[in-house]
Each structure stands twice: as structure tokens, then as C-alpha cells.
Amino acid sequence: MNAMDEPVLGLQFDDGGAGQEVDENIMKGIRRLVEDQPFGVLCTQGGGQPYGSLLAYAYTEDLKHLYFTTSVATRKFRLLKECGRAAMLIDNRSRHPDSLMDVEALTVTGRALHVKEGDALEEGIAFLIRRHAYLKTFVRCRTTALFRFDAIRYLYVTRFQEVRQWVP
Question: Is 79 buried (19+), middle (13-18) or exposed (0-12) by CB count in 10 A?
Fold first, then answer.
């Protein structure tokens, strides 16, 4: 990782100060949120403008990678091909419509890489189909692109403003 990947936060960002125990608690919260929420918002950029796109995703057990697909005829595809740096937002706000203090959110920063062929493509497709069986036809369509999102950092927000990070 270099400064270009994380222009605002360094690796020394506050982790709560309690070391490994905090890391395990953060990881448990992150894992619970990622497992419970099948959809996220992909945040991209292009032409000096930010864009957000709702998507279905799947994840690897170690949480280092997230997979998603998009049609090659979308703005999302074009923007990711121009600049792979992106962020994903995953949250559970729909479970707590009356209590912002109970909402949890993740911002995952990283790079989205277009996976075009071979074992990596089949592995990513398998992850997505296992989690989102209804996408089977779409994922296999020749006009659909698979992306692997390589997570650099997870920012885990609880109680509206408590922000902790985890670097996989």
C-alpha cells in the first residue's frame, strides 16, 4: 500500500488502543455486517464527479476480496476501467429505521480489478452464484464483467460516529 491508495488516513489511524482484542471485535462486527447485507454501494469517480452504484456482492472468507458484476455497457464499468480505485459502502440502516445510534456501516477502500479469464474468473463467479443464485444467468452472460475488489482498509462505524479501522 502506498500514499496514493489512502490519501487521508495512514495505517496509524486510531484502532481503539486495545490491540488484538479490539481487532477481533472489529473483525466480528465487520464479518457480521458483510454476511447479513447482500447489497452495497460501489463508489467510483470519473470526470471529477463521484458516482454511487447499488450492487450485489460476495466475499472471500478472509474478507480481503469482494466480487461483483456489471454489464459492460454501464457507466460503472467504464469508470472502473478508467480508475480502479473505489470504495464500497455496506450498512444495515434498513434494520434500524428509528434509531441511528444502532446503525452500523462499513466503508471498504480498495481497488476493483476486471477479472477476464481462467481460474480467477471461475472462482469469482462461484462466489457470486453461491450467495446470489438468481444472478446465475447474468453472471455467465458474455456482456457481463466480473470485478474483484481488493480491500485495502475497512472503516467500521458504530453508534453514528465511532469509527474504527481494520486492515486485512
Answer: buried
